[in-house]
Model the fold of this input.
Amino acid sequence: GAGVSQTPSNKVTEKGKYVELRCDPISGHTALYWYRQSLGQGPEFLIYFQGTGAADDSGLPNDRFFAVRPEGSVSTLKIQRTERGDSAVYLCASSLGTSGGPDTQYFGPGTRLTVL
Amino acid sequence: SQQGEEDPQALSIQEGENATMNCSYKTSINNLQWYRQNSGRGLVHLILIRSNEREKHSGRLRVTLDTSKKSSSLLITASRAADTASYFCATQNWGATNKLIFGTGTLLAVQP
Done:
């Protein structure tokens, strides 16, 4: 079946611009996660949705970052006033959302964001 | 922030040899997972070991977990060129949240 998809695959923008990154989770997965991966590092958690609500947004670095999942499926990560330090690969993952136990996360291919 | 570190940072071996990677973490966990990442297939889940388990096998993979030392190891036996990738450990403590906290990764190169 279809996996997690992310669009665009690459995004180049200028410092100060606004960007939106989209994630389509696996059908039926209630949990959705955003991570950010800088070159040579492991992914870092940003935000986790259970259904439509953000269950944990402790990883968002500042108020320029915001994410929504209005219908409990597709999610959009929004970055305002982009900075060069925001350049990274943004990864989305989804899972069944099983509570109280291991819940394998399936990752998308990522969006490579470059801020010039 | 990263949970911990993995070592070595990079490892180069010949096809057919075994590869061992180590991971250390900082906080209490419910489980520890290993992921592989290469440019062709992105980040792929390999194996999960629960905090009450000490060893787990899956095909050519063997994972150990020592919660007293807050460390884990991943052994890949009889390596193949296709095993060339970055390997990450990730911990989960689903009491509070299902988020994964990743280590810094080991870059494995298997020479044919």
